[in-house]
Request: fold
Amino acid sequence: MTPAINSKKPAMPKVPFSVPHNLPVPEAAARLLAGVPKLERALPPGGTVTAEQIGADGMRLDIGVMGQTITVDSQLTDDAVQGTVAVPMMMTMMKGQILQIVESSVAKMLAKGAA
Reply:
């Protein structure tokens, strides 16, 4: 008898984040969406960003870098962008740095839009 193989992928560690803002929600949402192309240009060569708006106040970003995909699920509230960053197992040693980059990128998008 062949032993069963667990085909489930291991769960990626999810790190919570929160970036405060004082913008009207529609303006904050517009700035975040407008900042996605700039985020992609800031990645190393070969890096990609796929953005999907979820409902009126949610966004999912899949950031491809170094052959791995980092997933950012976020929710826009009246006073913050909150969510989680799912870090691939191969990048868990860098999760602190990845979280800092996500938080600073969100803050920059909110501050300047796509400028």
User: Anything to note?
Assistant: Residues 21 and 79 are 5 Å apart (CA to CA). The two ends are 62 Å apart (CA to CA).
